[in-house]
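Reader question, answered in our methods column.
A reader sent in the components of a multi-part assembly and asked whether the whole thing could be modeled at once rather than chain by chain. We filled in our standard form and ran it. Here is what they sent:
COMPLEX SIZE: two components
ENTRIES:
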Amino acid sequence: QVQLQESGPGLVKPSQTLSLTCTVSGGSISSDSYYWSWIRQPAGKGLEWIGRIYTSGSTSYNPSLNSRVTISLDTSKNQFSLKLTSVTAADTAVYYCARGLAAPGTRWFDPWGQGTLVTVSS
Amino acid sequence: EIVLTQSPGTLSLSPGERATLSCRASQRVSTSYLAWYQQKPGQPPRLLIYGASSRATGIPDRFSGSGSGTDFTLTISRLEPEDFAVYYCQSYRDSQWTFGQGTKVEIK
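And here is the structure of the entire assembly that came back:
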């Protein structure tokens, strides 16, 4: 059973870069059957999709974050990562990593990591 | 960009009652690309329904999804104590994913 676990600094200063890693266990991140995503949730608010990456390295990002986001894969470590530059307090949220099926007609997220809280503050 | 509007914002019901949650899209959504999630406090979302009407593995049959085009519904036939949570719909189109703002189902 595949499991995902987010890790990274819980506190980031304004204008700096937020960096998170999602470690995948119980399955290979190199499988062509899946894509890998980041999703965030400010406290008490709804879910916001950040972006996704396929095993091929192909990425797509939320247009509202596009210029600040980079998602990458490290197949040797079975991990994928998120970098968000020039952060502000508005980027304070719980960040989730999640897996999706790459087959045609399938675009949902399952499973999800437990989430990690990132606070942007000086 | 597809905008998903969920209603009501909060649903106050008693255990055993039926819950009907709505998700309306600003543009047509393929039924293949409509999913529902349940989220409890301090937990990640859990996939309930995919393809608008298919239950995910391990999801009880009191949960059902329906709809097409721009109007989708999640129904919980008889609320169990563990069903009180926030529910989100999610759509996909043109390499973009969108979530609704959520419906909270609370104990009356």
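What stands out: The first strand of chain B starts at residue 4 and ends at 7. Strands of chain B lie at 4-7, 10-13, 19-29, 34-39, 46-50, 54-55, 63-76, 86-93, 96-99, 103-107.
Send us your own complexes using the same form.
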